[in-house]
Amino acid sequence: MSRLTRGLCLTLAVLFAAATVRADKPVTLRYHFKKGDRLIYRTTNTIKQSQTFGEKTFKQTISHRDVAVWTVTGKDKLGNYVFSVENKWLKVDFNLGPGGTYHYDSKSSEREKGSVLAEALTPVYELIDGATVTVHISAQGKVTKVTGYTDLLKDVLKNNPLATQIANGASDNGARISFGNLFPQFPRKALQPGNSWSVPYKLKIPKLGTIAGKRNYQYAGWVTAGKRRAIRLDETDELSLDIMSKANGADISGTISIDTSKTTIHFDPVRSRVLSVAIHLVLGGDLSIDANGQTVSLDIKQDHSAKIELLDTLPK
């Protein structure tokens, strides 16, 4: 190796090391938006569930896909960013085994009719399709307020227990907790690789029960996500759903909780955008169903995977 080549390699090595040191300097993460900013997110959700009564096991699958446009309309009096969130596309597929199947695609003019699922769910999804809600988010990523869901769905969910349970109540407060999956809440302090923090939450779902959870984040440092440099956050979740519900004359009680969880978030701090979120949760629990003087035990296992992606344009 010539002296010139050795010198060039040494120079490149020093520059690379310097860049690495700069990348690992403490970073204070914040969201920065301006009025008119527009974010397009596509979400894909798949839930695979098994229910076991004695020696019988029933398997169910639910898939949910949507595209939503988040537009910054300004700030509220507390300085939080205000987004108008419009649903542009919604597609759901249910395969509930003995409970039947159901399909909804907002791009299609055809609607299922006649089944119990169709009668309960189609009115809900037709309202959500194209609906706009308002979301308030702080610079640290705390979703402080959501308005629009409760008023939108309160009439169609009235006396509709099946839709209420599947939609988890579909309340403004429920949406506030759910949007936390897209916007990780950052701590006040600057972060270095290995630093961790937690964000607890609690949600009461009418006619179903209470959720107590915690999102545990760890700052992993700079990575390459696709063609972009980004910061990776690793997240594990704690969640317990205490169920106290009534359905078809039966009393249902028990607890469902997370067994394992893994979430990876890529955040672009320069453009102030979440680029992607990949979620995998495994949940399980035992429920007790009391009806007509008899008690039946139900074992539930659920595998939940989801992906949220920032898009450059609306898909055709």
The whole-number mean of residue pLDDT values reads: 87
Structural class: alpha+beta
- Name given to the CATH architecture: Roll
Shape: globular
Q: Give the helix level as a range of percent.
A: 10-25%
Continuous helix count: 5
Number of domains: 1
Q: In percent, how much strand structure appears in the residues?
A: over 45%
Number of strands: 12
Can you describe what's shown?
18% of the residues lie in helices and 54% in strands. It is of the alpha+beta class. It has a single domain, classed as Roll (Lipovitellin-phosvitin complex, beta-sheet shell regions). Strands 1, 2, 3, 4, 5, 6, 7, 8, 9, 10, 11 and 12 form a twelve-stranded antiparallel beta sheet that branches. Strand 10 (250-268) and strand 11 (273-291) form a beta hairpin. Helix 2 (116-128) runs antiparallel to helix 3. The longest helix has 21 residues, at 3-23. It is globular, with a radius of gyration of 23 Å. The chain starts with a helix and ends in a 5-residue tail after the last strand.
